[in-house]
Amino acid sequence: MNQPLQHTTVLLDEAVHALLGDGDAPAGTFVDGTFGRGGHSRLILQRLGPQGRLVAFDKDTEAIQAAARITDARFSIRHQGFSHLGELPAASVSGVLLDLGVSSPQIDDPQRGFSFRFDGPLDMRMDTTRGQSVAEWLADAETAQIAEVIRDYGEERFAGPIAKAIVARRTERGPIASTAELADIVAGAVKTREPGQNPATRTFQALRIFINAELEELQQALEGSLRVLRPGGRLVVISFHSLEDRIVKQFIAQHSKEVYDRRAPFAPPQPMRLKALERIKPSTDEVAANARARSAVMRVAERTEVPA
Ligand SMILES: C[S@@+](CC[C@H](N)C(=O)[O-])C[C@H]1O[C@@H](n2cnc3c(N)ncnc32)[C@H](O)[C@@H]1O
């Protein structure tokens, strides 16, 4: 491949503005939990003051290599899941940004196994240095487990038949090693096709979410952000499908009200910890220029003052 694979950042200005606010050259520590190719990080660094700091995370070694090219002393990168952001010092962070999912360089590289559009090894790990690939997991998983993953994370009606077809093929011909093989098995098991959608779309989404523990990572990062954000600090999350957006929406809603303990009716309530600020969708121009932006939803919340 001659051209390096590119990533077009979604909601670039909107996310960086929501994170840094209106002030000029803010100081403070900001977190980019999903460095990718650094689209958001680079704009944050442009707008950040000399006393500011940007701590970035990514699970992907290629993203870490891309980050190593940034020589700005205010910037650092960690090869970790963003679920670890809660390990930063409490109330030390002025903003957390998460731009969820996979980057175009990951999807468009056949060797990573994320896409049914290309044939390649059935891997789908964001972090290829640890954990099981999808091929390894599918080699041993039970039919019921496979069906549950495809149903829960893909919202796929034909999860049962797909799981049975995977196990039947595995028993007959050995482990499923490639994306093309999996896409072919799924296509044979999905009886009614959704218009304009490849029959393997939901299954691939489900297996990717599962193998990367994406929803658990998100839940932990949201909890962690409550701990590390200082009062007035911003939480900015860009989601690309309804399972992610539901978690973000419910988390913000749950912490945007005072919580009473029914077992202790006279105790003071736990104060609200977040204030919902905005829900933003990409403009029609952005969607026309970048198809990946079509399903994006950005939610912004602010950490509220903790009463003394
Ligand atoms: C949509 S891309 C981010 C693109 C980035 N904002 C940019 O403009 O270049 C998502 C990136 O986050 C990483 N990622 C996804 N989930 C992660 C997690 N739980 N922990 C760390 N990195 C994660 C992926 O490896 C990918 O590089």
Automatic annotation (TrEMBL):
Organism name: Diaphorobacter nitroreducens
E.C. no: 2.1.1.199
Compartments, record wording: Cytoplasm
Protein name per UniProt: Ribosomal RNA small subunit methyltransferase H
Family under the similarity heading: Belongs to the methyltransferase superfamily. RsmH family.
Entry binding sites for S-adenosyl-L-methionine: G38, G39, H40, D58, F82, D99, Q106
Function in brief: Specifically methylates the N4 position of cytidine in position 1402 (C1402) of 16S rRNA.
InterPro entries: RsmH, SAM-dep_MeTrfase_MraW_recog, SAM-dependent_MTases_sf
